[in-house]
Specification:
CATH class of the largest domain: Alpha Beta
Helix content: 25-40%
CATH topology of the largest domain: Alpha/beta knot
Strand content: 15-25%
CATH architecture of the largest domain: 3-Layer(aba) Sandwich
Bound molecules: adenine
CATH superfamily of the largest domain: SPOUT methyltransferase, trefoil knot domain
Length: about 220
């Protein structure tokens, strides 16, 4: 899989790709991530990429021309499954979307900034818009990093134990059940006996029951789907 990220702050987004599971996925060539500085496609030598909005109002808007040039250059090299725009005014990212996107071959992610992008970018160049939650960030970079992490960990071979992504919270619309490790007794807090029993069918039943209880209590909306 190849991910091309278009941003006005490449340095802001690079760090999450330089550690842990995501770094290992890149080192193992399971995913390629490329960062593109939008200013390289600026309109003039001063790096102009944004302007005031027509009709007045606070905040600068990213112009269509640099973005179009950048996306067109990428598209001339390969086909893309999706051109994604990170923005708070979109449907919220969930596990189903991450699962679907993890099957892509090539995707472009455009990070918004300032007051957003010219609407014509969204009409003409974007195939999918994603928000990471109902709050406003300073830009799309952190959202793009979250999206990439959620996708990359699902690529076969990225996680050591193939089943561990399948048993994540949300994979079956349930939150994960509680987990425990040694010691089995800490300050009189006991690990549930069933988990020490070695009876794996019963352990599975217990886990499903606990996952359901937790989901009902914390995220009942998930059970309505
Ligand atoms: N850019 C600003 N806020 C955002 C959000 N909530 N999700 C994705 N991109 C954003």
């Amino acid at each position: 899989m190849r991910i091309d990220i278009i941003t006005v702050s490449p340095e802001l987004i690079k760090s999450p790709f330089e550690h842990s599971i995501i770094k290992r996925a890149i080192d193992k060539n399971l995913v390629e991530v490329h960062f593109h500085d939008l200013r390289k496609y600026a309109l003039n030598k001063y790096g102009k990429i944004d302007d005031y909005q027509f009709g007045g109002g606070a905040g600068m808007v990213l112009m269509i021309e640099p973005i179009d040039k950048c996306i067109t250059a990428l598209k001339s090299e390969r086909e893309y499954d999706e051109v994604i725009y990170m923005t708070p005014d979109a449907k919220t990212l969930n596990q189903k979307t991450a699962n679907k996107l993890s099957l892509s071959k090539n995707i472009i992610i455009l990070c918004g900034h300032y007051k957003g992008v010219d609407q014509r970018v969204r009409d003409l160049l974007i195939t999918k818009e994603i928000s990471i939650g109902d709050y406003v960030l300073s830009g799309g970079e952190l959202g793009a990093a979250v999206l990439c992490d959620s996708i990359i960990r699902l690529i076969p071979g990225v996680l050591g134990d193939e089943t561990s992504a399948l048993t994540d919270s949300f994979q079956d619309n349930l939150l994960s059940p509680p987990v425990y490790t040694r010691p089995s007794n800490y300050k009189d807090l006991e690990v549930p006996e069933i988990l020490l029993s070695g009876n794996f069918p019963e352990i599975e039943k217990w886990r499903t029951k606990k996952a359901l209880e937790r989901t009902k209590k914390i995220r009942p909306d998930l059970l309505e789907d």
